[in-house]
Write a structure and sequence with these properties.
There is one protein chain. The chain is built from 5 helices and no strands. The protein is mainly α. Helix 1 runs parallel beside helix 3. The longest helix is centred in the last third of the chain and has 52 residues.
Length: 210
Amino acid sequence: MDALYHATNKTIHEIQQCFQQLNNPGIDSIAVENEILTKISAVNANCDRLDVLVFKVPAATRSGAKMKVDQLKYDVRHLQTALNLYQQKRQRREMEATEREQLLTRRFQPNAETTIDLDYSLQHNTQMHNAHKGVDEMLSTGSSIMDSLRFQRDMLKGARSRMVTIGNTLGLSDHTIKLIERRLTEDKYVMFAGMFVTLCIIGLVIYLCL
């Protein structure tokens, strides 16, 4: 087991050296990447064999042996992640270089169509315009609701005044007048509560749209 462990550990150091080669200009990165992949596969295979051999060592040293194997697994996972990130960056650089080359080598002919693909920008602008339009409509609706509530409030005030006048004319008792006033006050609170809820809903909708 010790020989396999040291060989696997040596392979990991070789992989780390391969990563250093990737930073050298003019290096064949594809070949180095393939070499790293081959070595990583070998390390994973050795780790699988080491998992089996761990159970064959004496119980007194088994815990330490397992920790060494787990460290090898952690190192190889870290190297695999680093390779994936490098490949993604390389592919992104190659794509950017290709797009830049296509843009620089494009030749525009007279009277030829020279449109540029702006579908994404146009779609985004359309969505923003629709969102603003929807917010304006909601604000207009909210303003109409507020005007209606103010009109209802004025009507309630007028109704209260008329009922007090009628009560005085008919000689109603103070208790009856107080009951009427309490009912008008409750109606006013209900109206204010409705206004508050409406404003909250409008504010929430505007926040979600933005």
